[in-house]
Amino acid sequence: MSTITLSNRHNSVDISLYGGHVLSWHHNNQPIFWLSELADLSGETAIRGGVPICFPWFAEQGSPKHGFARTEMWQLIRHTETEALLELKHNQRTLEIWPNRFRIALTVMLSDDTLLLSLVFDNTDSKSWQFGGALHSYFSCDNARAINVASLDGLMFHNSLTGLEQQFNGCQLPNPIDAIVPSVNKIQFLPSIAASHTVTIDQDGNDSCVIWNPANNHPTDVSKKQQWQFICFESAIVNNLITLQPRQQHQLSQRISLSK
Fold it and tell me: Any catalytic annotation for residue 234?
């Protein structure tokens, strides 16, 4: 699997060209993103963990699940020590699944305590098309059952496990959780009691934040001993799909900051 690495004094980020997939981010040797110990890195199937890119739909709004961007080879356009630009364009395989012409540019930019992930979707077709998707980020934590997110208290969310509309009661996340929370632009949490940093996720271009940890119903490429060691905070376009006219663009981004 072809990978590139971004690094500076405190950080290292590994990116796979397969899927345009950010595999890992380590800050002072501590993992910020979670990667399953059972993740398939053969380049033949979707990778569990890191930051999968979902496009042109989220979840099972189409087939394959989460779209095809995460299982396509991306092209490296530019690479410095702290920044990378990758690109995915329509091809014969994608046109057979989704008959629209497009270009996606992924920018990954690293600074001392911040990682910026930016997707720019470009309609290169002669007709309009509609899409959804997500930056499906897996964050490392000691225990997903103990994660507190103060900004969610009192907010309504759609529980995909039950199909019901519910309200967060307090700061602690329910478990298991598969929540679609509309109109959330910022998430802040402490990944562990002993953590030296707070994680802040600023989101733009999304209509929802999807929060996910399936607990005992975890996929086969998540081991039982790791099932509580991650929490997904996903910047998603899921309720209000984006329509792009020819030559129009849309940007979806996560700016992830670490603070003491």
Answer: yes
Q: What does the alpha-carbon distance between residue 213 and residue 126 come to, in Å, rounded to a whole number?
A: 40
Q: Could you tell me the residue ranges of all domains in the chain?
A: 3-259
- Give DSSP secondary structure letters for 61-85: SSSSTTBSGGGSBPEEEEE-SSEEE
Distance between CA atoms of 53 and 38, rounded to whole angstroms? 19
CATH 3.40.190.10 fits 3-259, yes or no: no
Percentage helix, strand, coil for the chain under 3-state DSSP, each rounded to 5: 10, 50, 40
In sequence order, what are the beta bridge partners of 259? Answer: 198
Q: Which of 106, 158, 160, 101 is nearest to 131 (CA)?
A: 101
> Considering 21, 136, 158, 218, which one is annotated as catalytic?
136
Question: 10-residue block means of pLDDT along the chain (260 residues)?
Answer: 95 99 96 97 97 97 94 98 99 98 99 97 99 98 91 92 89 91 93 82 98 93 96 97 99 96
Q: Is the pTM of this model over 0.85?
A: yes
The rounded Cα 198 to chain-centroid distance in angstroms is 18
Say if strands 208-213 and 186-189 run parallel, antiparallel, or are unpaired. unpaired
Q: Is there a catalytic annotation at residue 136?
A: yes
